[in-house]
Amino acid sequence: MSTLIENIPVEKVKSSRIHEVDFDNLSFGNVFTDHMLVAEYKNGNWENPKIVPYQPLSLNPSAKIFHYGQSIFEGMKAYKDAEGSVWLFRPEENRKRFNISASRMAMPELPEHIFMNGLEALIKLEKDWIPSDLGSSLYIRPFMFASGEGFHASPADSYTFIIALAPSGAYFSGKVRVLIEEKYSRAANGGVGYAKAGGNYAGQFYPTQLAIEKGYHQVIWTDDNTHEYLEEAGAMNVFVRIGDTLLTGPTSDRILDGITRKSILEIANDFDIPTEVRKISVTEVVNAAKEGTLKEMFGAGTAAVVSPIAAFGYQGVDYSLPEVDDSYATLLKKQITDIQYNTGEDKYGWRHKVV
Ligand SMILES: *Cc1c(COP(=O)(O)O)cnc(C)c1O
What we know:
Blueprint: E1 3-5, E2 8-10, E3 35-42, E4 45-46, E5 50-53, H1 64-68, E6 71-73, E7 76-80, E8 86-89, H2 91-104, H3 112-125, E9 137-146, E10 159-168, E11 176-180, H4 198-213, E12 218-222, E13 230-233, E14 236-242, E15 245-248, H5 259-270, E16 275-277, H6 282-291, E17 294-301, E18 305-314, E19 317-320, H7 328-340, E20 351-353
Helix pairs in contact: 5-7
Bound molecules: pyridoxal-5'-phosphate.
């Protein structure tokens, strides 16, 4: 017998795995909830979504995801406040970006109600899995891949959309050491860097491994043409503070339109922090480091909100960032997490109540 949530049929697990989980020692994205949402696209139409037990998938070896990598995803979180209410942060932005990614990869767009109602139904069902201590959250992974078959290099005729959930602990990366990349590129003009397409990330692994071997944690991507301008920090947008001005590069084919990035820019403006959205050259950052005007660098993304950078390497020299008392990174992170966890005012209307 199946029940309905938001008109979506639910096939429940026979017994929950929730009691096997050590909620005090959660890492990031390694434990998955009991259920997932699945919707199939076939014959030009999206079939009705359903919620089923989290389980392995069955695909033919000729499914195009394995050969041509038609695959996209989103990353978002649900937060539980002290009263037990559950919140999302700007979910409509993720929904829209998912379809921007889908179009770029010649995949069908997902109807709004499947994404939003599916998400809300699944989160309501899995509410007990959301950790409630500050910093912890339920990581949400919506994704779509080509399930249609054939060795012909062309878009598949069928696709699977899934939302899976992973209760996750606070993301304490600590301060990271980054290497400014001079050879490899994450993205190029006319390419797919603005889409959250699976292959983008596989392409980053090797250069990142090389940076790790040299003693860094992460790569700062530069433009593919000249390697003279900062673009992103790993899979995060990057911010630089020179003097009292907060800088970040403009979104483009190569720089992904991060929701954290644009939220930071809006909050910074409201705090009268001078911001500039423009190209940032490596030379400018190196000179600022030498002159002592480089005060902060940080990555920005859903997983960590902000990820402060302790030092960067460039052409064999390491440059350290100072400890500042009036850290923008700390202020901006607090403002965003106060909205996300319902511990502060949300004058922007970014917080979205699920239950
Ligand atoms: C997801 C992502 C970001 C950050 O986006 P958010 O919406 O802030 O999570 C930045 N850069 C890349 C390459 C990404 O994939």
